[in-house]
Amino acid sequence: MSTMALSRQSWWPWARRVAVWGFFALIAWLIVRQALVVEWEDVFDAIRALPAASLLAAGALAAGSFALYSTYDLLGRHLTRHKLGTPTVMGVTFISYAFNLNLGSLVGGVAFRYRLYSRLGLSNDTITRVLGFSMLTNWLGYLVVAGAAFCLWPMALPPEWKIGSEGLRILGAALLAVALAYVAVCIFARGRVLRVRGHGLKVPGLAMAALQLAMSCANWSLIGGVIWFLLQGQVAYVQVLAVLLVAAVAGVVTHVPAGLGVLEAVFVALLSHEVPQAQLLGALLAYRGLYYLLPLAVAALAYLLTEARARRLRGRR
């Protein structure tokens, strides 16, 4: 064995351990930082002020949304033919989604998937394809739901936004056109392998594209329903959904973890003329508690259990 190989054997295990513990330290720091900026007392007060029926309905829709999103990676499993079981795949997707919402896509949606799936035995190429297909599914539904909302129910935007109802209709039509273009590709290029940054992506068929759209559209609609119930129906559902879709893009563009302040700013700007600001902010704080913080607590525990299971699997190998 060469001197270089011996040297690598001596330092590589230590370097890997340092990288793993550094990863855990980063996650812990991000969670603590996120927890410190949340006004916990305000969250609890907002939730206590809500009628039990509204809170239960919103909680049920939030649970349904997470359950539905957790099936997205099953589509990627079908595409890549990897052998992980359904509960395992849904567990990894749930954990990644919860951390993605609270800590940003790079930490949650990307880092957690690579970390957990690689520990469970998937190759980086397979993980990339599963992740890419899941993200594609999520934003395809956004294109359709946002496109329909902006085209059919354009909201009145503040003057300083420099875009009126007609501008929103044009934007909505463009979003729908992009989604339609994807469906057309699935019809006419089914089975072809596209190369994206060295990764081969097989174009799915029309049935898979329809399933992607149905699942993602339903999920975005459920999220809108959570906020609508917390607002106790004071604003039309389609209007709440449209504002949520604007806030979602604003949160992505600003790269703020959990969209802190961005979500609230968009809702206040667009709905404060219809709902008292204090009540609006209270509903949004309750939404953060139900849709962000509670799933994060569950995901943190699930993450520890998944890590322990992955360690046992690696031990058997």
DSSP strand (E) fraction? under 5%
Outline: globular
- Helix and strand composition category: mainly alpha
What is the domain tally?
Answer: 1
Q: CA-to-CA gap between the ends?
A: 25 Å
Total beta strand runs: 2
Helix content: over 70%
Order of helices and strands: HHHHHHHHEEHHHH
The stretches of 5 or more residues where confidence is low (pLDDT under 50) are 255-259
- Main sheet characteristics: 2 strands, antiparallel
Mean residue pLDDT? 81
As a whole number of angstroms, the C-alpha radius of gyration is 21 Å
- How would you write the strand order of the largest sheet? 1-2
* Tally of separate helices: 12
Overview in brief:
This protein is an all-alpha fold and 317 residues long. It contains twelve helices and two strands; from the N terminus they run H-H-H-H-H-H-H-H-E-E-H-H-H-H.
